[in-house]
Q: What sequence folds into this?
């Protein structure tokens, strides 16, 4: 006990050797975890003077975290010159954020050659976005061999898009073995699609234990389908504490169904701050019902900017009500491009009003194929 007290009285400078960069890095990490960024920076700068690439890289991460992108880039470039693949990968992310995709690819390719799985994963995403599925799959597989769970999930998604459910499940199970909650949640969704509620619940509960808010929200949906409102609310509230906007929106809907408009609005406003399009749409609908068309339009336009077809359709209705048929048609066509059946019904109505029954019928057929009852009636 006395020995412990004696050690406590020593300063860090007394304990750490002046040429021990690894100890400096660890002390910086301890300071960072304690919230003392100045002390963390000081320790890492000491290690950086000894050309320790890890210290230089974390200084770049720290500068990036605090919003100083110029300093971040400078530190990371120093680390990259010392062949640090993590620094190269981060430089690629910075380049991508600045819109320089060629530089981003170059940095990631350098890091990938040094065996960095995050760089391989990023190259896979890059290839997927460019429509090169073969290259995307190849990069994901390289990253997956290095136990990159996100790459495994992407491979599962590619397999699912190709209709190969066995491969989808296999990749997701590999990621789940690495304790990836997103993979577990996706396995729960697969089980639900197969009608296996027990497996669905089991996977979602595993993910929820790892604090996955999406899994908690889905467990709330399952409870709601089973008629257990207490469990529904409990799961949604757990997810909401983890800033899950979908859970907040669903809590708002529960409050609305119970007749508590103030609580509903409060939950939807919380979710709207997190850019949840469904919450924005509901706030727009609430404002419309209250007769506040300006507020309704403002909320709906925010939702539409997030590609919400319901909001686009409602904006079309508002535009039609204001006598602006051209604007209405534009909104409905945008929503129809996102396969929203209600907008197809309204486009059919406008075509019929213009005397174009063939176009009207085509729109209603499309809407009816998507289950839109008004289009069926019109046909």
A:
């Amino acid at each position: 006990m006395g020995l412990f007290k004696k050690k406590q009285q020593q300063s860090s400078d007394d304990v750490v050797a002046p040429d021990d960069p690894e100890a400096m890095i660890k002390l910086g990490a301890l300071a960072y975890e304690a919230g003392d960024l100045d002390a963390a920076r000081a320790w890492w700068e000491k290690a950086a003077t000894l050309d320790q690439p890890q210290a230089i890289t974390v200084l770049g991460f720290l500068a990036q975290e605090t919003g100083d992108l110029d300093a971040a880039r400078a530190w990371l470039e120093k680390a990259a010159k010392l062949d640090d693949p993590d620094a190269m990968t981060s430089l690629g992310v910075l380049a991508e954020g600045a819109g320089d995709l060629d530089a981003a690819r170059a940095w990631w390719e350098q890091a990938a050659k040094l065996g960095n799985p995050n760089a391989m994963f990023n190259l896979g995403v890059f290839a997927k976005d460019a429509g090169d599925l073969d290259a995307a799959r190849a990069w994901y597989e390289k990253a997956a061999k290095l136990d990159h769970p996100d790459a495994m999930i992407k491979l599962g998604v590619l397999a699912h898009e190709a209709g190969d459910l066995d491969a989808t499940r296999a990749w997701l199970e590999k990621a789940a073995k690495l304790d990836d909650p997103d993979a577990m949640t996706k396995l729960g969704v697969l089980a639900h699609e197969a009608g296996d509620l027990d497996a669905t619940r089991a996977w979602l509960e595993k993910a929820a234990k790892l604090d996955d808010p999406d899994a908690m929200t889905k467990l709330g949906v399952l409870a709601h389908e089973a008629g257990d409102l207490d469990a529904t609310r409990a799961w949604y509230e757990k997810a909401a504490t983890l800033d899950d906007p979908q859970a907040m929106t669903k809590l708002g809907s529960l409050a609305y169904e119970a007749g508590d408009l103030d609580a509903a609005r409060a939950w939807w406003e919380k979710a709207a701050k997190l850019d949840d399009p469904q919450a924005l749409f509901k706030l727009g609908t609430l404002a419309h019902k209250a007769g506040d068309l300006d507020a309704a339009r403002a909320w709906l336009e925010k939702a539409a900017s997030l590609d919400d077809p319901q909001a686009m359709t409602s904006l079309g209705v508002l535009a039609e009500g204001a006598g602006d048929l051209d604007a209405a048609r534009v909104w409905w066509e945008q929503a129809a491009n996102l396969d929203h059946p209600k907008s197809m019904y309204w486009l059919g109505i406008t075509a019929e009003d213009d005397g174009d029954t063939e176009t009207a019928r085509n729109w209603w057929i499309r809407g009816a194929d998507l289950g839109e009852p008004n289009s069926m009636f019109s046909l």
Notes: Residues 21-33 form the longest helix (13 residues).
